[in-house]
What does this fold into?
Amino acid sequence: MGLYLIGLGLTLGVIYTNRALYTLIFLSTLQVVIYHLAYKGRRLRDIANLDSAFAWNIFAIILIITGLSIDKGGFGSWASYPLSLPSYTLGSILVIIGLCGLASQPPFHRWMVETTSGRPQSSALVASVFALLPPFYLIMSAGTTIHPAGKIAMTVGSIIGIAGFLSLSAASFIENRMDRSSGYITSALMGLAIFIAMRGEPVAHLAVSLIVLVSVSRLIQYLIISAMDNAGIDRDMRKTTTFVNQHPILLFGFLTSVFLISPIPAPPVIPTILQSISVATKINPLLLILLIIGLFLYLSHFIKLFETTIGGRKQQGEKRGIPKSVSISLLLASLFGIAVGFLLLLQPLLRLSLKV
It folds into this structure.
């Protein structure tokens, strides 16, 4: 639990800091936590996955340090090198590509090491293509405006990537293949968050709210597994650990890909309250609709989790559910986590209401 909280703190640090060097330190330290958890389990295939990730991490760090070295003179020191640059130089492009690669793994995909095991080759290919879109977009926009054909290509690529993730994940989820369903939602989403921050979009509070939702789901997951053990319920660890954590990231993928093609024209008819929230939070109305749908989808996964665990089967074959008091406590905790996410998301609106 302590390692998890450390990892969460480091991730929030990545969101809040605007210094490339500090971000590198945060992400590199988080890697140490992940390796500790992986090698503690001594599962050979997980260790092999992390060994391959380690090789890429070293390469990403080399890119970042090289980029910082090239551009250091313009900012006085590495520590003052910002992530949000007015224009893109060779050094900044290297830093951006390195950060996207380094941040695409923790904590969402690589944190629960089991989610990397048995991932289908097709999903790995889609994930790899999707992971390359942000740095490719930045390289295309280096110092100049993007050609209309380039924008169209980026738009189509993002939509195809997101639609592919949606359909594959939904199909696996319907088949109750939670491990495979979560495997389709892989990589690069944290890298996309950093990419958005570098574009100067007002989404820091949005990213933090989603991280809170995911982190609370992790804590609740540990409570559920502990309660199932205490109740003597036989549970499949993969089914109770993977889909709880990964499906909220599907929403994150939606939001970040939408920003790639922003600004998006608002739908012709928008409820007044939605428009007010959109103005107060500076979030595109279509993006806000996706967020609300995603949060309700997130809640539905909790309901699915409770159906799976509470109706579990005792190891001796007798059906027995988790005690009602524990079930109610877990449900209240999940609702609290979602409420916290909403409050963080709507902070600008709340501040505006208080002023009025």
Notes: Residues 1-107 form one domain. The chain has 15 helices and two strands.
